[in-house]
DNA sequence: CGATAATTTGATCAATATCAAATATCGTGG
DNA sequence: CCACGATATTTGATATTGATCAAATTATCG
């Protein structure tokens, strides 16, 4: 949803040419930015994975977010002069860099773009809240099942034999769910055994 | 941060008078809105607690969010005609209702307000992401400790004996952390025993 | 075809949820 | 100001469940 929708917003405008965005390649472990650096860009992940984290006084660090393919991040760069955390590739990654000043300038002159982008942000908020409340479900089975049901509502409301296309690895889904991959596989099996869903290839149907 | 900051944004404008906002009282269990109803307002909680949830085809429902004092919710009402979930008080509550059309109109004519509100939304996103990554910390001790450290960074960066004022019940904090209250109390004790923090009354200091 | 990653199943362990119960605290009405 | 009820806090005992370690199988991608 995110990098894509942002890009299509930008394509709608004539003023925002190629000179205001470019793609950077990062090898695993490379830093995209560090705290204190000028917040020149907002980003969207083309491929790979970026960890956002902060150092704590005691030497530890805390993860703020793990951004995956097609996610945008550091939107706050639109409103601050500096980055306030680290961004580091945890896989070889390609990242779209969008010039924050140019984008900001565009927002300042184009009120309708402004509202469109606000809608994108509001959507992200809804999505994040929904992910957060997923974590309140203790049972792995229930959590996975609810996640699957969410996927349906996002894509479609009416189709009868509820079909979900899984376009990424179960391991990464386990990650998003805050469960170990082993438990996810076992839950899938249990849900299938109890007739709650059926799998074939990369499709899951809920019953 | 949220209802307050939204209010102060609105106060900055002359056009947005009292006629565009009012407070509703809800008794425990009362519905604020239901799916399909016209999305007339965005809301902020003055006191109490509101559950946002959705019905699923199978008769179950899923919680999308639990909004607490000073949080805003249903910002999406700015961009859609109808609500898409239930909002129901789970305590006696007072809720500020802000007319979505009026606010939207204001946003459309006041670009700088638009950017300010975007900044609020971007801040919410940061906060949500940070809460989400908290849940990735398995150990109750670490999770609680990290939460406490986060509270500090939000309020202040420099004060030496890091002091956190706990202005709500540990039970509700346990909730937010996705832990049982018992575990939170035990973790507090353990952290105190191992000299990582000190408590008195409603203050916690990190060492 | 070989290498790498993903999926799958098993066994065990550790940590948190849960149930129970006692104490402390707070707010309210008398 | 006090009594009382409701809620929050605290500690103990136990059970459940998901994490973790291991290893085999399958899929995927040059």
In short:
Two copies of one chain form a homodimer. With about 210 residues, chain A is of the alpha+beta class.
What does this structure look like?
The structure is a homodimer. Chain A has six helices and eleven strands. With about 210 residues, chain A is α+β, with helices and mostly antiparallel strands. In chain A, the strands form three sheets. Chain A has a four-stranded antiparallel β-sheet with strand order 1-8-3-6. Chain A has a four-stranded antiparallel β-sheet with strand order 2-7-4-5, with no helix packed on it. In chain A, strands 9-11-10 form a three-stranded antiparallel β-sheet. In chain A, a hairpin with a 5-residue loop joins strand 4 (about 50-55) and strand 5. In chain A, helix 5 packs across helix 6 (about 180-195). Chain A is globular. The interface of A and B includes residues 104, 111, 114 and 131 of A. The first copy, chain A, binds a DNA duplex (30 and 30 nucleotides) through helix 6.
């Amino acid at each position: 949803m995110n990098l894509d929708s942002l890009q299509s917003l930008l394509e709608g405008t004539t003023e925002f040419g190629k000179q205001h965005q470019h793609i950077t390649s990062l090898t695993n472990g490379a830093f995209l930015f560090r705290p204190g650096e000028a917040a020149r860009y907002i980003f969207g992940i083309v491929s790979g994975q970026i960890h956002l984290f902060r150092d704590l006084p005691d030497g530890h660090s805390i993860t703020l977010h793990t951004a995956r393919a097609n996610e945008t991040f550091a939107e706050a760069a639109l409103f601050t002069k500096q980055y306030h955390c680290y961004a580091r590739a945890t896989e070889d990654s390609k990242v779209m860099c969008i010039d924050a000043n140019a984008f900001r300038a565009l927002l300042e002159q184009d009120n309708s773009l402004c509202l469109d982008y606000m809608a994108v942000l509001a959507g992200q908020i809804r999505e994040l809240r929904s992910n957060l409340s997923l974590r309140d479900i203790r049972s792995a089975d229930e959590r996975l099942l609810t996640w699957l049901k969410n996927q349906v509502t996002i894509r479609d409301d009416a189709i009868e034999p509820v079909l979900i296309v899984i376009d990424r690895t179960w391991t990464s889904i386990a990650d998003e769910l805050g469960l170990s991959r082993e438990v996810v596989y076992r839950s899938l099996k249990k849900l299938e055994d109890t007739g709650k869903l059926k799998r074939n290839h990369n499709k899951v149907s809920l019953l």
